[in-house]
Design goal:
The complex is a heterodimer of chains A (about 550) and B (about 500). Chain A is built from 20 helices and 8 strands. With about 550 residues, chain A is α/β, with parallel strands linked by helices. In chain A, strand 1, helix 6 (about 150-165) and strand 2 form a beta-alpha-beta unit. Chain B has about 500 residues and is mainly β. Among the domains of chain B are: about 1-40, no CATH class; about 45-115, Carboxypeptidase-like, regulatory domain (Immunoglobulin-like). Chain B contains 3 helices and 41 strands. In chain B, the strands form 10 sheets. A 7-stranded mixed β-sheet of chain B has the order 26-25-24-23-27-28-29, covered by helices on one side. A 5-stranded mixed β-sheet of chain B has the order 11-12-13-14-41. Chain B starts with a helix and ends with a helix. The chains are: A alpha/beta (about 550), B mainly beta (about 500). At the A-B interface, helix 2 and helix 18 of A face helix 1, strand 3 and strand 9 of B.
Chain lengths: ~550, ~500
């Protein structure tokens, strides 16, 4: 479906619809919060009943998600030792490879067994689909790295990590997408980097994104789209078919492991409809995790967990942060939105709408690492974290556009539209409200209890039941602590045990972080959209101690 | 993974759909009692909290596993015999009804000790204690002269002489005193000095009490005087069926600025009046914006007609008490008059909204919160009941523990009554105090201050609510107090030598 995936330059009915759907999430969130406040005061009995029902729902959902977090983590660790490059090579001879895989092999190692089982399933599915094979020698990985104000210290580790890939470096093309408004220092750094790594890859190019192009916001999406267009011209000139190019849009601080591109290529190869899919790794924030304060570590680990959980449900997975996709698909849909902040999630929805719902995200069980927010002082870090989370929550800007698209699209089934719309809407509203309901509002009926309520069985039972629920929820907390410790890199300094123990205790900050650094920024973002005060892009401060 | 996800999803949905309603029903008091004819029953609970805590609980003679404070859940409706036992304390027993879906809350149980511990406060012989209502202070008088009067703080156990030793006014003999009933730290003393009788207005402030001679401002025929806390600069004097206002800041007097008055009271910066025509009025301090609250002549005659003077007390903006000079107590809530007989005094409790009133031999409670009007078919007015009817001569009463108990002094014995929602009052005698003396109870510290029954005149305190105030220690004397005590010792030695 041809659809202008933008909330700008609308008129008439489209404008009205756009505003209506912009107002909806924020209004819903505020109605829930204020409604529960009022209900706690006016009808504490009803409020207490609703809160018990909600808390129990929250517990079950938490346990459900924790279960899949564990499954996902097991799968992630199962793939840690996978030789992706070997798989990629063997896929060139699909039938032989399939035969090899189906031959009986007794695996003693359970993780290996799991990995092999997944591999067999994926290869079989691809084989059954009858899709064209993507031969290794034909494939290229195009990596776009946007730079706004990041210096060499931030960008180089990422380039270095790509240069250490097991994937043939001569099939990797690097594009450094630099903003024209960047400092000269930054530009010089990028030029030096390009020179340093010139001979490593197929090519490394710098594209300077001009400032002030009409219709563009000061957003990463505009920069990378410009770079992608330039890359398209380059590829065309080199006679490289777009179908054979996997484009990865990274952050400037993204660092990959040596098997990353091999893994990506594998997933690309075995995807039956690779031009109708994005590829999403698990983001971790390990570049500077030990320099970050506890609050940041807990939050960033929570983000990684979220992605791990989402990976178990590809039907509902949406691209986030650094991701990859078919370059052909990117060109077909018209590149990333140039006037939206949340380009990472917007690209998925844009593709989803363009291809009439025939688009999905394939989870990759491999990680890539980025920087946690660190900004000098604790307070500045907290402020920056808040701003970052608010920017992430600004992904709600997709909702009105997606809804308008759904209303116009006759090709996606109604059921599927409702399902996707609900997931998008509910996800954002839950993000903005649940922490408040759990932490504050849940206790209000008892505080506001009049004589009638304070002399009811419910008045005494409700806190008791909520206490049991929260105690059961601690299973999730303990699981999160354990998994987060396992995901952490080794501390560079001594006293690693002390550091890890301290890190475990920092999870006790969860109630504070969930309210003030997760729910509140989300509510902030939704309220801004409700009021029509659209956000401008704010580049996250990135600091890293250079070894 | 997708299949696994779907399986778990439906399992969790099933768990939620099945258990959530059950959980809510359980929370509301619904229980499933298998077997017999019971099935699903509606249960109640009993919430127990005692002071001191940690009492063993017996329910229908069976010992409950937990101690106070606790909640006993899942009780079928009915009556339960609850007994609390704590070492060195008297047993507390009560038959407690449990209703379906309701909590029977007994969270203000006070366990009385087997024997009362007394803490000596000071060795100086005190003749009388005069409570300053609704404050943490009381006055203690060793003698008749003003210099023998002390201000005593219950919180920090300190005392200060009202007047400095060198002040000549100290030799004045106190004939009368007036205190505010609303919690003001001030008092008016009518004293006999060499030069004649004087009115001294004292702002109590520890060792810096301020004394102001306001004799010139006070009308000669003053019958009653009132002021409000934090507004001690404005005094309202009732005399000759009128009200005179005195502004202490400026020394201005507005004589009889509200005439034809037979009763008054102050509340919320307003004056509430009963006029000679038996109308009930409200006006501001300047008597500029006056409002008639009740002008039904017949009703006014019925309520106020025979009284020469009425003391008006405002419980709230809508509830008033009127106590006449002949002891008739009426309110503005039906049935207006709750009891016959002569009421000596009333004490209102801010927390519970109840009022204690007593006659010589009876003490009762008016519960204004019991009132239910509006959507109910049979409206209920405030409830009144006599809590104790076997007294000899009730002199004082205090609200204790947020309006859950009453402490009253009958002749020279203290009694303690537990008020209950189940219309039963349990009254226990406590101990005796010095004959003819009064007591002071501080809700902040939970202590009663009294003069020892032996007649020694020594000031003691005992814990009514243990653990509420600071640990007991003798009153720490101020420098002034120490000096006075030393002078007395010296005088006593001189007398002995003589």
């Amino acid at each position: 479906m041809k659809f202008e995936f933008s909330g700008n330059n609308l008129s008439g009915k489209d404008r009205k619809l756009q505003r209506f759907f912009e107002i909806l999430p924020g209004t819903t969130s505020w109605v829930i919060i204020i409604g529960m406040l009022i209900l706690s005061f006016q009808q504490p009995i009803y409020a207490a009943v609703i809160i018990i029902a909600f808390d129990f729902y929250w517990l079950l959902r938490l346990l459900y998600l924790t279960l899949f977090l564990i499954f996902s983590y097991i799968r992630l660790t199962a793939e840690k030792e996978t030789n992706w490059m070997e798989r990629v090579r063997k896929l060139d001879n699909l039938e032989d490879y399939l035969e090899e895989l189906t031959a009986c092999k007794k695996q003693v190692n359970k993780k290996q067994k799991l990995s092999d089982k997944a591999l067999l399933s994926e290869v079989e599915e691809f084989h059954k689909s009858g899709s064209n094979k993507a031969q290794l020698n034909d494939l290229y990985n195009l990596v776009i790295i946007p730079v706004a104000k990041e210096t060499r210290e931030i960008v180089e580790p990422g380039l270095k990590s790509i240069a250490e890939s097991s994937f043939p470096l001569k099939q990797i093309i690097i594009v450094l997408a630099v903003e024209e408004r960047a400092d000269e220092t930054v530009k010089n750094d990028i030029r030096h980097l390009a020179q340093t790594y010139q001979d490593k890859f197929f090519d490394i190019m710098i594209f300077l994104h001009p400032d002030g192009i009409a219709g563009e916001a000061k957003a990463k999406g505009a920069n990378v789209s410009f770079a992608a267009k330039k890359a398209a011209e380059y590829l065309a000139a080199k006679n490289i078919s777009f179908e054979n190019v996997i484009v990865s849009c990274f952050d400037s601080d993204t660092v990959v492991n040596s098997e990353y591109f091999a893994s990506l290529t594998y997933y690309f190869q075995v995807c039956p409809r690779r031009e109708r899919a994005s590829f999403q790794p698990v983001p971790v924030y390990n570049n500077n995790i030990w320099e970050a304060p506890g609050i940041t570590r807990v939050l960033e680990t929570g983000s990684s967990f979220f992605q791990l959980i989402e990976a178990t449900n590809p039907e509902k997975l949406v691209t986030f942060s650094s991701h990859s996709m078919s370059f052909k698909a990117l060109v077909d849909i018209g590149y990333w939105p140039v006037d939206m902040i949340s380009d990472d999630s917007a690209i998925f929805w844009k593709a989803f709408v363009h291809f009439d719902g025939e688009y999905k995200v394939i989870p990759m069980y491999t990680t890539l690492s980025m920087d946690a927010v660190v900004a000098g002082t604790w307070w500045k870090t907290v402020k920056n974290v808040y701003k970052q989370k608010r920017r992430w929550a600004w992904g709600v800007e997709n909702f009105p556009i997606v809804m308008r698209a759904f209303l116009k699209n006759k090709n996606i089934s109604v059921f599927f539209k409702i399902k996707q719309a609900f997931k998008l809407f509910e996800g954002h509203v839950a993000w903005a409200t649940w922490a408040f309901l759990l932490t504050f509002i849940g206790w209000l009926p008892a505080i506001f209890a009049g004589r009638e309520f304070s002399h009811s069985v419910l008045y005494y039972s409700a806190p008791r039941i909520m206490g049991i629920i929260f105690n059961l929820a601690s299973f999730s907390l303990i699981t999160s602590i354990i998994l987060s410790l396992l995901l952490l890199p080794k501390p560079t300094e001594k006293n690693s045990i002390g550091k890890r123990v301290g890190y475990a205790f920092q999870w006790l900050l969860v109630p504070f972080t969930m309210v003030f650094l997760s729910a509140l920024p989300a509510l902030d973002a939704q309220t801004r959209m409700l009021l029509g005060k659209y956000m401008t892009f704010w580049v996250t401060d990135k600091k890293r101690t250079v070894d | 993974m997708q299949i696994l996800r779907k399986v778990f999803f439906y399992i969790f949905v099933l768990v939620y759909v099945v258990f959530c309603p059950l959980m809510i029903l359980y929370a509301m008091g619904y229980l499933y009692k298998p077997g017999g004819e019971q099935g699903v029953v509606k249960a109640g609970l009993i919430a127990l909290a005692s002071v001191p805590s940690g009492a063993s609980i017996y329910m229908n003679e069976s010992r409950y596993t937990k101690k106070t404070p606790t909640v006993i859940y899942n009780l079928l409706p009915g009556e339960y015999a609850i007994r609390l036992e704590l070492d060195n304390h008297k047993k507390w027993e009560k038959k407690v009804p449990v209703e379906a879906e309701k909590a029977t809350v007994l969270d203000k149980i006070i366990l009385l000790p087997d024997s009362w511990e007394k803490q000596k406060i000071c060795s100086t012989k005190i003749n009388q204690i005069i409570p300053i209502p609704k404050t943490n202070f009381f006055l203690a008088a060793k003698g008749d002269e003003l210099k023998d009067w002390y201000l005593v703080g219950s919180k920090d156990a300190k005392y200060w002489p009202l007047i400095k030793a060198e002040d000549k006014l100290g030799n004045c003999v106190v004939e009368k005193y007036f205190l505010s009933e609303e919690g003001s730290n001030a008092g008016l003393f009518y004293v006999k000095a060499d030069a004649g009788k004087r009115y001294l207005f004292v702002l109590f402030n520890g060792e810096n009490s301020e004394i102001q001679d306001i004799t010139a401002l006070i009308p000669e025929d003053m019958e009653q005087i009132k002021w409000l806390p934090n507004q001690e600069n404005k005094l309202f004097v009732f005399h000759s069926k009128s009200i005179t206002r005195i502004d202490l800041d400026t020394g201005a007097v507005y004589p009889k600025y509200i005439p034809d008055v037979k009763g008054y009271g102050l509340f919320g910066g307003q004056i509430y009046l009963i006029s000679e025509n038996n109308e009930f009025l409200q006006t501001d301090y300047n008597n500029n914006s006056s409002k008639v609250l009740m002008d039904d002549k017949k009703l006014g005659e019925q309520l106020f007609g025979k009284a020469e003077y009425l003391d008006v007390k405002a419980i709230s903006n809508t509830v008033f008490l009127f106590l006449s000079n002949d002891g008739k107590l009426v309110t503005n809530k039906l049935p207006y008059q709750f009891m016959d007989g002569k009421i000596k005094e009333t004490v209102y409790d801010n927390f519970s909204g109840d009022v204690i009133c007593w006659q010589k031999d009876k003490i009762g409670v008016i519960d204004f919160l019991e009132e239910e009007t509006g959507n109910v078919l049979f409206e209920t007015g405030p409830a009144f009941e006599w809590a104790y009817e076997k007294a000899a001569n009730i002199k004082q009463a205090f609200w204790v523990y947020n309006g859950s108990h009453i402490l009253f002094l009958d002749r020279n014995r203290l009694f303690f009554t537990e008020l209950e929602e189940f219309n039963s009052f349990a009254t226990e005698p406590l101990f005796e105090v010095q004959k003819g003396s009064l007591c002071f109870y501080s809700e902040d510290t939970g202590k009663i201050y009294y003069l020892d029954a032996s007649g020694s005149g020594q000031l003691y305190s005992s814990d009514i609510i243990p653990g509420k105030g600071s640990s007991v220690r003798p009153f720490s004397q101020t420098k002034e107090g120490k000096k006075i005590e030393e002078v007395e010792k010296l005088k006593k030695r001189e007398i002995d030598e003589i």
